[in-house]
Specification:
13 strands; elongated; 219 residues; alpha+beta; 5-stranded antiparallel β-sheet; 35% helix
């Protein structure tokens, strides 16, 4: 394991786009009078259409991943509070689906009704802030799984995993998290994780990521 380049203190998780919590909560509050809150189970699946009607999914608590249907690759994941599906009004979202990463509290809500309420309460700025964040998250993920080396991809995924909720981190192995979000092989991923663990760059117990220390920029 080479350690060329500047070390990175992952406690700061600087690469993760800043989430606009206040704007997201404004939008959720705007929809609150018409919401039915559902308690879900881990791995429960949601689609963006129900009987032909486009829907959003309001995530109050827990974490949910956005999957690409044809290969089950995870494009992004979010912890509550968040709203999935606001950017789907101009396209058919059948190639995507959502799956809970832990027990969650959610509210399915009609997309058309959401936009009526946003217009009524003049919350376009809050919507724009949330959409910019959503696009940045997916773009950031796509950019960082296309970097030249497997190590750089794994480094980014380790940082992402540490930003997930403690409950979710305890329920998934590090290797599964990485391989479900990238095109890396399991054997290659396990080899690099083993070397990072041996070098005291990460702490894992039974495959679960406990902490990330000073990850080198280069492998």
């Amino acid at each position: 394991m080479a350690t060329h380049g500047t070390s990175f203190n992952s406690i700061t998780y600087e690469s993760v786009p800043k989430k606009p919590y206040n704007h997201i909560l404004k939008l959720i509050d705007c929809f609150s009078t018409n919401q039915d809150i559902i308690e879900t189970k881990n791995k429960q699946i949601f689609n963006y259409t129900i009987e032909g009607q486009k829907m959003i999914l309001i995530l109050h608590k827990g974490s949910i991943a956005l999957y690409r249907k044809h290969d089950n690759m995870i494009l992004s994941s979010e912890s509550g509070p968040f709203i999935f599906g606001m950017s789907q009004q101009l396209s058919l979202p059948d190639y995507l689906f959502l799956r809970c990463q832990e027990d969650c509290l959610v509210s399915p809500f009609p997309l058309d009704e959401a936009f009526k309420l946003i217009a009524q309460h003049d919350l376009w700025e809050s919507l724009a802030k949330m959409l910019i964040y959503s696009v940045s998250r997916v773009q950031d993920h796509c950019a960082k799984i296309s970097v030249p080396s497997a190590y750089e991809i794994i480094r980014f995924q380790l940082i992402e995993l540490m930003s997930e909720s403690p409950e979710f981190r305890q329920s998934t192995t590090t290797a599964n998290y990485i391989t479900s979000r990238t095109f890396l092989s399991r054997s290659g991923t396990m080899r690099i994780l083993s070397e990072l663990r041996a070098g005291n760059y990460i702490t894992m117990e039974k495959g679960i990521l406990i902490d990330v220390h000073h990850l080198p920029l280069r492998y």
